[in-house]
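P.,

For your records, the input lines for the assembly:
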Amino acid sequence: MPEYTPFEMIAYTGSRVLEDEKIVFVGTGLPIIASMHAQLTHAPGLSMIFESGPLSPILEMGMPLSVGDTRACRKACFLKGLSAVFELTQRGYSDYAFIGGAQIDMYGNVCSTFEGGTYNTPQTRFPGSGGAGAMAANCEKSIIIMALEKRRFTEKVEFLTSIGFGDGSADYREKAGVTGAGPYRVITNQALFGFDKKTRRMVLLEVLPGKKAKDIQDMVSFDLLISPDLKEMAEPTAEDLRLLREVCDPEGYFLNRKVK
Amino acid sequence: MNRKVSSKIKKVSNLKYDRKMAEEPFEWWGPSPDEARRTMSNKAKGMRDKCMPLKEAVGRYVRDGINIGIGGFVNTRVPVAIVHEIIRHGARNLTLSFQSNSICAELLAGAMILDPERVSIRRVELAWWGYEVIGIAPLLRYLTSNGMIRLDDYTNYGMSARFKAAAMGIPFVPTRDHGGSDMELVNRGQMVECPFTDKNVYLVPACHPDLGIVHVTAADIYGNSRIFGAHCTCPEISMAAAHTIVTTERIIPNENIRTYPNLTEIPYATVDALVEQPYGAYPGASYGFYWFDMDHIKMFRGICDEFRKTGKKDGLKKYYDEYIFGCETFDDFLSKVGYKKLRQLRDMDGGQPIILS
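Structure tokens returned:
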């Protein structure tokens, strides 16, 4: 197997999770790279939607450095503004929300607002919801990229920015007035998680080859459910890595970052 | 619609917040819908030449205590030229409203840190404040951790829908987000039971800025504006605001506007002052003209982060003295940036197609 970095593994896994013939609402960075890779491999009919306004662009000028990058508009089929793309999403046109965050709990609720202190005087204020809260509410399924660390996979998030299954009750999302079905996958470089249909709790689905369920549980603050059918994560081939490194992110803006 | 309900959000997270603040009676943070309506009905709506120097436009519409709605999105078509002029002019006790912004919000925050007697921000209604790939916003972090500004958090759709409601002349709009998140507990929206479905739906209040500031691709002298690339929420902000200042890359003939009226995204009646300002979004990007200047943004962000970490204002002061107070106009600033850099950014745009004819 060729060598790969943690971010390449996340991007590759993100690509694997996306199905063909769907629309994915992408956040900045790895979600864009994963979606580009999916389009180049198993999902040529996958379209991207970006919150600044474009639907189904052809990213021939290279990877947009942010969801507001003018390059994300290149050869789009439909190009308006934020209202239009979020209204399409509310109406049911966006199959996947592809977001990140600072903390996640066992029900897939995500924090990207602050850490420490109070809402009014936070120790560490993050940028805020941006599109993520709306995407997690109204795309059909949410895919969340997280760093696998105990302090991030937490019992309770400090601010619930992007809705998951809330307190885990069956009608939580209905009472919240949101339209999407909720969290679908959580991607890290060492494990892939899903959610149990009955309890809506996070389930370990796949582990990095060589890792055991216990290794993953040790990096998570809450009790994980373990899939009875626990699998090893597929690894990127040399061709996958070539696409990621030479086509998707040739400057290495996101794939060459150092793991903190 | 008066039955107050809520989702089951309570106790899902560890949120600590000032409940008193969250339970304050609702207050408009800018003109109320009625006040915004009155401003509009009292305006002369003739097709008149609205071109004026930026200094005059800002002098006419910027006052202490107003709500400024900032156009663009993160680094795209951000009204930087107008923000520079507002900083030179001075404006205290501001409320800012935007969905996602980077340098405009940070520039105003930096001016506040240097001299709160000149510029100060009291509160911000927003979805996101940061630099995306370049990093977090150091001055947002500084102002919030020191309790110097009050925030009101929505999603990007929430803020867009709030401007849109205002642009539609309605006092609120139902959305299918915010509910079930902690934004439901802390922001000024309200969960209600829908009278038609009997289900919960989240209402966000209209957002009418006193002043909308927007940068567009092209406009005629009356203010009819075209926007190429992402519209962001610029048409909504222009229509929502009591007054709007527009900077434009190019002025085009009214005849062109009338040939393709479908291309007009902002109608003349919503524009109070128009300024032809090439590179008016620099160091942000303007589709069809220039890409964003990552080096300049990194440099400014680095200076802000240095201040956040050390508390030393020297670097910040030097930046403002050089690039804002040391310039009479935005063209003076662009001269300091230099032709070579501007040309490079034009090339990096890659000639995105726009229609000026």
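Two observations worth noting. The mean pLDDT of chain A is 96. DSSP finds seven helices and 14 strands in chain A.

Regards
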